[in-house]
Structure formats: structure tokens, C-alpha cells
Amino acid sequence: MTGLGSQLHVVACAHGTDNVSGRELIDGLRADVASALAARGLRAQLHEAYVDVQEPALDHIVAALPPGEPAVVVPLLLSTGFHTSVDIRQAVDSRPETRAARAIGPDHRLAEALARRLADVGLGEGDRVVVASAGTRVEEGLKEVRQVAEWLAVEAGRPVTVGFGAAAEPSVQAAVAAARSEPGCRRVLVAAYLLAPGYFHSQLAKAGADAVAAPLLPDPAVAECVVERLLEALNMTP
């Protein structure tokens, strides 16, 4: 990749949502990332892009970047999945001088953020926890979610299981039912391993849990992880 004396383009690529609050939180995440890069003295132009629901589409943004200038696509996505493995990979491969950062997770800071969200809904003695992920058919992404759940179990001081909204088993509803059947269970709480409100978070209320925690944003740990992924992609020290 061309040296960083050239204009660096950072394409911050999210999934996209129809949820107004979700859109605002993702916009805020981009703003936090831009501020963090500026504070490090990293001269970069940040671009908005999406792989679904919203515009501008990722492939259109990448195609429109000035020739010869370096670019990094940074997924505003928590795990490896179809969008990182196919959509983002195809966009990156379509243009020279372009590379992709890895997904935001897994990261211990995200587990700590989940623990803070659970504290907000009153995690107590005898409560069981289910981490709810949107889901993926990509095995690496499933392993990443389970890793975050293991870290959360340490943070929360109790067993934590995982449920998925789609594409993988068990479903969140099945995971909640299994947790409730455990001896000594008082309540079942869902830790939403999601960035922001949207379709998947709205579905969690139907899973039968006693409480559903808010998504991760606007926890500052998310922006910290995104910036670190970008620096890794640039072979710079976080």
C-alpha cells in the first residue's frame, strides 16, 4: 500500500438499519472514530458506507475513491460473517491500494461493555445470562461470539450461554428456555451483542427473557476497538 503521506481513505462500513436511533448511534460511532484518528495525527478522510438497507452502498463508495490513493474498509460489524467475507472482500478486491480491517470483535473490552449493559438491567444473584448475536453461518464468526461469551462469564461471575437471531443454533428463544431450566435460576437476562437498536434487537423481547439489555453503543469501548482494527490493518501500533 502507498505510504501514508498520501491521502488515506477510511471506509467505515456498517450493516444498515431502518431504526432512527440505530442510525444515529452508528453515525456517532463514525464521528468518534474520526475524532480518535485526528487525535493521533492520522490524516484520513472518513467515508460512510453500508452493505444492506441504507445508502450509499459499499461497492459504490469504493469504486468512487480517487485512483492511486490508499484505502481501508473498516467493518462496523461485530463478527466475521457473510458481509466481511463476501461483500467487503469483493469491494476490497475490486480496487488496488485497498485493504480490509477485521471485524470489531472478539475483544475483551466488548465483554466488559456487555457486563455494564447487564448491570443497567440489574444483574443479580441467581440470574442466568444469554448472549444474543444476530448470527452467521461462518464458523469463525460463531467462535468469535462464543469467545466474547466466555469473557463475559468471567466478568459476570456466572455461566453465560449464547443464542442466535438467525443462521445458527441455538436460537435466542431456545437458549433462554434452556437457561431458565437450570437449577437455581431466578431470572434470565439477555445481553445484546449488537451495536445498536434495529430489527434484531426488537426481536429479543419475544425470546421469553425477564430483561433484555441495551445494545453496545454508545459505549466508548466500541470506537476504541474500531480504531485498533484500523491501525492493525495499516501495520501501525495501536
UniProtKB/TrEMBL annotation:
The GO molecular function terms of this record are: lyase activity; metal ion binding
Top-level taxon of the source organism:
Bacteria
Kindly list the residue ranges recorded as spanning the membrane.
none
User: Pfam families from the xrefs?
Assistant: CbiX
UniProt-listed InterPro entries = CbiX-like (IPR002762), Sirohydro_Cobaltochel/CbiX (IPR050963)
Alphabetized UniProt keyword annotations: Lyase, Metal-binding
Query: PANTHER family of this UniProt entry?
Result: FERROCHELATASE CHE1, SIROHYDROCHLORIN FERROCHELATASE, CHLOROPLASTIC
Please identify the protein, giving its name as recorded: CbiX family protein
Species of origin reads Arthrobacter crystallopoietes BAB-32
